[in-house]
Design brief:
- By secondary structure, the protein is mainly β.
- It has a single domain, classed as glutathione-dependent formaldehyde- activating enzyme (gfa) (Alpha-Beta Complex), CATH 3.90.1590.10.
- It is built from 2 helices and 11 strands, in the order βββαββββββββα.
- It has helices at residues 34-40, 139-149, and strands at 8-11, 18-21, 27-31, 45-51, 55-59, 63-69, 72-76, 83-88, 93-96, 111-113, 128-129.
- The protein has an 8-stranded mixed sheet with strand order 6-7-8-9-4-3-10-11.
- The longest helix has 11 residues, at 139-149.
- The relative contact order is 0.23.
């Protein structure tokens, strides 16, 4: 896939942590669960699932915060406290917060999760919706659909 215009640069609000994305996302998701609402202080969290080998922190040292669960390491800037990414333990991807990109104007979630906790009036524009997380059997279909018809940088 050559239409992703990679690499992408990203940083936290204060610029203390800088990141680079060198591989295309596997999928774009919006999560409406209560934990994501609390972590973002918003209606949902927006995520690009990036292959582990396609993501790196190139400056600064993020700190673990959020829910402090061993299976989900939420990484934040130690100075401005922006939520930057999450590393689900044992998974070959990083859940990256696309609002940190230099240009995030193109990002559109392909699927939404945690919709049972969706706030009234919250609209993500996602094509697929799940009350909790998709069943494992749906991920291949979702990622293939995203690769075919998901939003890409302009």
């Amino acid at each position: 896939m050559t239409d992703w215009k990679l690499p992408w640069s990203a940083s936290c609000q204060c610029g203390g942590v800088k990141m680079r994305v060198t591989q295309p996302p596997m999928i774009a998701l919006a999560c409406h669960c209560r934990s994501c609402q609390r972590l973002t202080s918003g209606a949902y969290s927006l995520t690009l699932m990036i292959p582990e080998t396609g993501f790196e922190v190139i400056e600064g040292a993020p700190e673990i915060g959020g829910m402090h669960r061993a299976e989900l390491q939420h990484s934040f800037c130690p100075r401005c406290k922006n939520w930057l990414f999450t590393r689900p333990q044992g998974m070959p991807f990083v859940n990256f917060r696309p609002a940190t990109l230099e240009d995030s104007s193109w990002v559109q979630p392909y699927a939404e999760t945690g919709a049972q906790d969706k706030l009234p009036g919250a609209v993500s524009g996602a094509k697929h919706s799940y009350p909790e997380f998709p069943p494992p059997s749906d991920y291949e279909m979702l990622m293939e659909g995203f690769a075919r018809e998901g939003a890409k940088p302009r």
